[in-house]
Amino acid sequence: MERAQERTQTDPAAGAALELLVHGVGGATPEKMLNDPRTVRITGDDTAAMYRREDDVNAEAVDAAAGGPADRPVPEAYVWSNLTSGNGTRALWLLLLPFMVVNLAHWMRPATRERTRTVRLYGLLVRLTGLTLTVLLVAAACEVALDLTAWQCAGTRACAERHSWLGFLSPAVSDNGWWSLPGRRLALAALVPTALTVLLWYLSHRTWRAYESQEPPNSRTEPQDAAGHTALGRPGFWYGRRLVARLRAAHTAAGLLTVAAAVGTAAAREDRRPGGPALLDGLGWLLEAALAAGALATVWVVCRRGRSEHRLDRRLDAHLVRRLPLAALTLLALTFVYAGWERPAWRSAGRLPGDVTFGGIALLQGVLVIALAVVASTLYRGSRSDPEGRAALRGLGGPAVAMLACALGGLMSGGVSQRVSDWLDGTGTYLAGPPVLLTWQASVIPALLIVLLALCALLAREALRLARAERVAVAHEYGADPGDPARTQRIARARAMATLTDRAPLLVAVTSTTTLLLGAGALVGAFATGRTPDRAAEAAHPFVHGAAQTGQALGSWLIGLGFILFVTWGRRAYKDASARRTIGILWDVGTFWPRAAHPFSPPCYAERAVPDLTWRMATWTRATGGRLVISGHSQGSVLAAAAAWQLSPADRSRVALLTYGSPIERLYGRWFPAHFGPAALNALHEDIDCWRNLHRPTDPIGGPVRLSGDDCGPEVDRAALADPLAYGRTEAHPLPSPILGHSDYQADPAFAQERERLLSRLHKEVPAQRAKADDQQRVKADDQR
């Protein structure tokens, strides 16, 4: 620090100032951010880069040669939109949504400085829940490929003739061809879930190298204090190579072992029948023992160790862990050989034993979620770090989100199985269908939708009531009485709709609780009756029977329709900027966090963006000795704060922060209190030079950060900005002013005022005490206005 101060007194470049702009979820071009059509990329690549105006490329060198810094800071734009947007094929990442959601649950634990073992237990339970989701996904693929297609349809003459491409697998159609034996059919069909598992491994490995293998600038030094209140400042937080590699090995092995179990247990069950060959029976027992050993090894790897954040961990685990997928693949190949052994008396009939598999997964997931809720409640009650009750669901946000992840996985598995069964068996007379539990899970979807529609109706009613109350406030604030009723109503409606974001905890709580209860009911119904809902209700009242049939059919079609809409909206969100402003924030919140619970979740763009920003700020301040303002909109403000936490204390003190439309407290502070809670934000505010935040009452995403002020002003938050700027036509606004909501904060004069206030602090010509007094006077004048 003393060397930096000495440089400021002797080096003309030490007074240099930089304004670093970071856009939000909607993306932006460097030309728009810098307000100049002539921009030059000064560092970075096609994925993410820093840009400057053509005239400012060598601004620091030119200013130093001229004997001092220029009168204005140099603007520089960081463009990272290609990390989260692109062509429509990226919408396929949405198929991995359950993995992303369970990964979010890892980061939602309550804030605490003690109870280290309890924190580790929380992370362990989330990792085990993620492992069950991998097994569930691969088991669903096995159900579709092995059971419905190769076992049931290919084993039934009518179904095989209806689908000619299955003829070579059918013993009745192909005259007992080589592939017509049940074991060989299963081995061939098992290539589909095997390929799916390998594809997930490949995508996880490739995306980590492309996006997340960026070392932070403090990786070569001792760990920084990280403001002492959040893990985001630890040297290894944005470099999870060791954990991701370990989890990738374990989940890949789990997927391959699931495929091996689906093939091997069917053959072993046949060999245990009376009169079966003793050799094959012994091989079957040996195979199942090997599968059990592999499953135990996989669980041990997942439970062994969590994240290493206190230092940059470049090492990988022992060869035993790294070679676990290869061992599982070898066991799978041996299983194929075992199942393909000729068994003349073996015939495919009914369905494979999938009910026990899916029932066991559902039961285990329920137990894990309940245990996670107990641990999260213990952490929340013991922390006492949320006096205002701002944490979502009082610390139970993580378990609720984990329950939603399990529900998504179950509904997707049941829906895909049901739709494939309906497609293969058009008349519903040939096949036994998917496991009973999957049919029950699909059948409860209408009931879940009824509950959600009722909740949405209540929220809409609340929004209408609030909109009526806001009309009076709008008329008073703009002095428009009576004014234009339609104009007043539009402004009041925008404010009321923006408050729905704060109702998200209620929506998540009701959805997760309803899902848990309906899932438990489906599990009990499936195992108590052993039949599908419509057949279980045959002896009941005709109305009950009809309701069961309707729910079963409607649930199946709703899943198919939902899948189509899901992918369609995903493609639109990646290709349409307006769509990204509405639904993109949810996806960007999910992919902001590193992969800590599931290695197959979509890649974390922040593991590329945060090191980019940290490297740039650290190298620039150390090279010039100057100060900088980092200006972030929406999700860009979260990246800016995360990058500031990664700086050393000396560098952090040279940084001023301007945020607008920021979800840093409204979303991140409430849902991720351990990392963006009040203690973490207060520590960041104390360590950086200055922080100002802008927000609007019509913004559904951004909000206040709720921090007390310093020499920059009495509060970090400026009073809520007027939106629209003018109620009607005025001399300053001769045309109607639009309601901007979350966008175009730069259009408000307050943005220029706050920006100028922060930038004026960067000039070395202004003495510190005078700058402090001037800032306080400006704040008082602005607050009076």
SSE map:
Elements: H1 2-10, E1 17-22, H2 30-34, E2 39-44, E3 49-53, H3 59-65, E4 74-79, H4 97-107, H5 116-153, H6 157-162, H7 182-189, H8 191-212, H9 241-271, H10 278-304, H11 319-322, H12 324-339, H13 355-383, H14 397-424, H15 436-443, H16 445-478, H17 485-498, H18 504-529, H19 533-536, H20 542-575, H21 577-592, H22 606-624, E5 627-633, H23 635-646, H24 649-652, E6 655-660, H25 668-671, H26 673-676, H27 678-687, E7 690-694, E8 708-710, E9 713-715, H28 749-760, H29 768-784
Parallel strand pairs: 1-4, 1-5, 5-6, 6-7
Antiparallel strand pairs: 2-3, 3-4, 8-9
Helix pairs in contact: 4-5, 4-14, 5-7, 5-8, 5-9, 5-13, 5-14, 7-12, 8-9, 9-10, 9-12, 10-12, 13-14, 13-18, 14-15, 14-18, 14-20, 15-18, 15-20, 16-17, 16-18, 20-21, 22-23
Label this structure with key terms.
785 residues, mainly alpha, Rossmann fold, seven-stranded mixed beta sheet, 29 helices, globular, disordered N terminus, disordered C terminus, transmembrane helix, Integral membrane protein, membrane, transmembrane, AB_hydrolase_fold
Task: Please provide a written account of the structure.
There is one protein chain. With 785 residues, the chain is mostly helical. The protein has a domain at 2-88 and 605-784: Rossmann fold, CATH 3.40.50. It has helices spanning 2-10, 30-34, 59-65, 97-107, 116-153, 157-162, 182-189, 191-212, 241-271, 278-304, 319-322, 324-339, 355-383, 397-424, 436-443, 445-478, 485-498, 504-529, 533-536, 542-575, 577-592, 606-624, 635-646, 649-652, 668-671, 673-676, 678-687, 749-760, 768-784, and strands at residues 17-22, 39-44, 49-53, 74-79, 627-633, 655-660, 690-694, 708-710, 713-715. A seven-stranded mixed beta sheet has the order 2-3-4-1-5-6-7, sandwiched between helices. It has a two-stranded antiparallel ribbon with strand order 8-9. Strand 2 (39-44) and strand 3 form a beta hairpin. Helix 15 (436-443) runs antiparallel to helix 18. It is globular and about 90 Å long. It starts with a helix and ends with a helix. InterPro entries: AB_hydrolase_fold. This is Integral membrane protein. Residues 761-785 are annotated as: Disordered. The chain crosses the membrane at residues 121-141, 186-203, 249-268, 283-303, 324-341, 361-380, 392-417, 437-460, 506-530, 550-570.
